[in-house]
Design goal:
CATH class of the largest domain: Alpha Beta
Number of strands: 10
CATH superfamily of the largest domain: SPOUT methyltransferase, trefoil knot domain
Helix content: 25-40%
Strand order of the largest sheet: 2-1-6-5-8
Largest sheet: 5 strands, parallel
CATH topology of the largest domain: Alpha/beta knot
Strand content: 15-25%
Number of helices: 10
Radius of gyration: 23 Å
Order of helices and strands: EHHEEEHEHEEHEHEEHHHH
Bound molecules: adenine
Length: about 260
């Protein structure tokens, strides 16, 4: 899978992309991340990428020209503007099979199912907003999707872009070392994950639950499922509402409702 990142701060990316699982995935050719400096697509002496907002007010706005030129050049897209028409058309989302995603606090809020949806594309483009915002024509005529990583405002879309890359990359075949991959993740199965333990069996007087040392796989599976349900019940009851539960799960959840935990 190929990620095309458009940013004014390309120097933010290498340290993360050259570390651990993402580094290995790149080296093994499972993902490719190309970071493009929007400033390289300016043509004036000062390489201007932002300007003051029409109508006044504070802050600066990212100019449309370099962003359009960068994305169109890299993705090989034709301009959506037909100079002979008065009104420019909105770029149809099917114009190419490459989602062009603007990272912005105004977007739909990123979650595991959006990560799964995006992991099915062979190539996606991520535009990192900066300053007070981007010229609205970028939003209307270039991007096909807007994504926020949460209801708070960052100084730019660079960290959100890295978060998307990380969450999507680990879903791709062979990226994670474990062959069961991301199947058991919190959120992937609609529940928070059960607790994990490793050696030693006793640490500062706190013992690993007996069942995990029992070697009885059916019992361990049942314990893990119930722990996942218990955690989700306590920490994220909203997730339980949206998850498909078996009869045994429902019975267990009912028992939690009648117990003080
Ligand atoms: N840019 C600034 N804040 C952001 C957020 N919460 N998500 C995505 N992009 C952003």
């Amino acid at each position: 899978m190929q990620f095309e990142v458009f940013t004014l701060l390309p120097e933010v990316f290498p340290s993360y992309l050259e570390t651990s699982i993402i580094k290995r995935a790149r080296e093994r050719g499972l993902i490719r991340v190309d970071v493009h400096n929007i400033r390289d697509y300016t043509h004036d002496k000062h390489h201007t990428t932002d300007d003051t907002p029409y109508g006044g007010g504070g802050g600066m706005v990212m100019k449309p020209e370099p962003v359009f030129e960068a994305v169109e050049t890299v993705l090989g897209l034709a301009s959506p503007f037909d100079e002979t028409q008065d009104t420019p058309p909105t770029r149809p989302t099917t114009a190419s099979n490459i989602p062009v995603i603007l990272l912005t606090p105004q977007g739909r809020v990123f979650n595991q199912s959006i990560a799964e949806e995006l992991s099915r594309y062979p190539r996606i483009a991520l535009i990192c907003g900066r300053y007070e915002g981007v010229d609205e024509r970028i939003r209307e005529h270039l991007v096909t999707d807007e994504i926020s990583i949460g209801d708070y405002v960052l100084t730019g879309g660079e960290l959100p872009a890295l978060i998307l890359i990380d969450a999507i990359a680990r879903l791709l075949p062979d990226v994670l070392g474990d062959p069961t991959g991301a199947e058991d993740d919190s959120h992937a199965m609609g529940l928070l994950e059960y607790p994990h333990y490793t050696r030693p069996p006793e640490f500062r007087g706190v013992k690993v639950p007996e069942v995990l040392l029992s070697g009885d796989h059916a019992k361990i599976e049942k314990w893990r499922r119930e722990q996942a349900l218990l955690r989700t019940f306590n920490k994220r009851p909203d997730m339980l509402e949206k998850t498909e539960l078996s009869k045994a799960d429902l019975k267990f959840v009912e028992s939690l409702k009648s117990t003080d935990i």
